[in-house]
Amino acid sequence: MIVVIGGGPAGRLGAIHLAQAGKDVRLVEQRSIGGQCLHERCMTICALNDVARLIECARTQKDLGILDSVPTVSYPAIRKQLSEVQNKLSSVLDAETRRAGVEIVYGAEGRLEGNRVFIGDEEVRADAVLAATGSRPAIPDIPGTDLSGVHTYRTLPTMADLPRRMAVIGGGVVAAEFAHIFHAFGVEVDIIARHGLLRDLDEKMRSAALRDLAGVGIREGTPVTSIEGGGRVRSVILAGGEEIEADAVLLATGLVPNSEMLQGPAKRPDGAVIVDRRMRTSVPGVYAAGDVIGPPFLTPAARREGVVAAENILGRETVMDYEGIPQGMSLRYDYAFAATAGGDGGITLSAPAPAGPGSFWDVAGGWAGLAQIRVDPGSGRLLGAAAAVPGASLLLSYIGYLMKQGITVDDFDEIVEVHPSTDGVYGLARYAAGLLKKKNE
Known about the structure:
By secondary structure, this protein is α/β, with parallel strands linked by helices.
């Protein structure tokens, strides 16, 4: 028997892969199948952002005189309906996983003690183990994080209604996504970033994101010294003494691997389980995948890691390749980007994206998004691509794969794209091909 600990993207995909290969697989999940992606992070952001975008589109069209009003949000109704849809999706994943031949054990903790495997208090014999125990929110060492009204992405569903003012502590993608959502809902939002906001983004993509965050207060290079309140949050105190009023605080300060139940495999100081490119830990027969092994903390990467682990358990030597895996962010538009290994070189071209579904009426305000590519001037190979448009996440999934296969800008001459579309990558690639031809003539 093979034991899989954790039913998130890495564990579930790994378990299905093993079961479909004829193995006896037992998946242990303490809560509901689907992991944080379904229940607290990705799908929650999708659900809330759908509503936020609807409000923003309505606001744009009201300003143009097309609509006569902008809808208001019932946050309690969102919470109720979101939970119902998530439960439905979890039921679908449960049925799909069982159909593949996986036995699922709910409500028990899977754990390791060296090479011994336990499900709850029962030790079980396992030919191999796939540990996919995920991660949890990192709580910064700031006084007041235990006050009522201070949330992480995990506890947001318990927020009874929309606050009047919210402080979002953090400078990454999750901080930007939730700030955008709650601002669209009518909440006064301040982002407080210890360093810079979205500082890992290309500068043009970052500037595009800041357009979507217009109206959100942004404080960068500003540590928080404390969260104040008499039992319930009242304000946030910044270094230097500035006080920001807030009746809710969202901690978007990163992730910590859940590995306390995995004793035996070597770990990094932050608790991340150390694996090689075949997802093998330091304990023979024990594999790990997903957030428990640390960054990049991406669902597509976790899924692939789970499959790579399963392949190696089956004796099929397979290595994990992170090249070309796209990343995304959901604001007013989708933001997505992918790059090849060594993709920092080359020349970068960018241009406004063409108007299309989801952005036509935004042209009146002078903005329809951004497209960007990075090209090797010698070979014409596409090294990187990014887009800030409706549908960018879907586009970059395929562009990332094509880059990995070595696509050149010349190859885009033979691609016939869907129209109308907001994709500006095709046009930029063709433009780059023309520039390179002229240069080489």
